[in-house]
Write a structure and sequence with these properties.
single chain, about 160 residues, Rossmann fold, 4-stranded parallel beta sheet, two-stranded antiparallel ribbon, globular, binds ligand DLZ
């Protein structure tokens, strides 16, 4: 029996808001650049597919996922942005570094969004290995950068109502 639950990577069933009135910042980590570059491409094409103007998308590169927090803070401090999309890829290693980074980044991005009362979107892959990351950066599980972009548009539209 076919499942009635849609694949979340398939946005064809979602009514996505018009992105043309909004200005977006994308903060992207340079660590695991092959993956984060693919997430960035997915995010930009997701924004543009829904009407965002190229001139309203600003990309800021930071060294690693940990720096996404301060990158997001710096962008939202400039009150012209309607949302920030944070893109990174943390791959499990042999130490507890992974856990510290993932927890800090998730909490940090969440706190920045609350601090500025603006959507701060968590587009960070946290995977066991490179293949799992590739699968989610334009591979068989879609592109989580594009999903993050759709979330940013939806949240910018919701925020505008308040
Ligand atoms: C140091 C480090 C390690 C080991 N692994 C990753 C990773 O998988 N993904 C990532 O985005 N960044 C990693 N980093 C770098 C940290 O995010 C950060 O840049 C440094 O700890 C300096 O603050």
């Amino acid at each position: 029996m076919a499942s009635s639950i849609k694949n979340l990577s398939d946005f064809s069933h979602i009514q996505v808001a018009d992105a043309s009135p909004f200005k977006f910042a994308i903060v992207v980590a340079q660590w695991n650049a092959e993956i984060t570059g693919a997430l960035l491409n997915g995010a930009i094409s997701g924004l543009e597919k829904h009407g965002a103007k190229e001139s309203n998308i600003q990309v800021i590169e930071v060294p690693g996922s940990f720096e996404l927090i301060s990158g997001a803070d710096l962008t939202l401090r400039d009150h012209s942005f309607d949302a920030v999309i944070c893109l990174g890829c943390v791959i499990q290693g042999e130490t507890r570094h992974f856990d510290f980074i993932c927890n800090a980044v998730a909490n940090g991005i969440s706190n920045v969004g609350l601090k500025y009362n603006k959507p701060a979107i968590f587009g960070v892959l946290t995977t066991d290995n490179v293949q799992q990351a590739l699968d989610r950066a334009g591979g068989k599980h879609g592109n989580k950068g594009e999903e993050a972009a759709i979330t940013a548009i939806q949240m910018a539209a919701i925020a505008k109502k308040f």
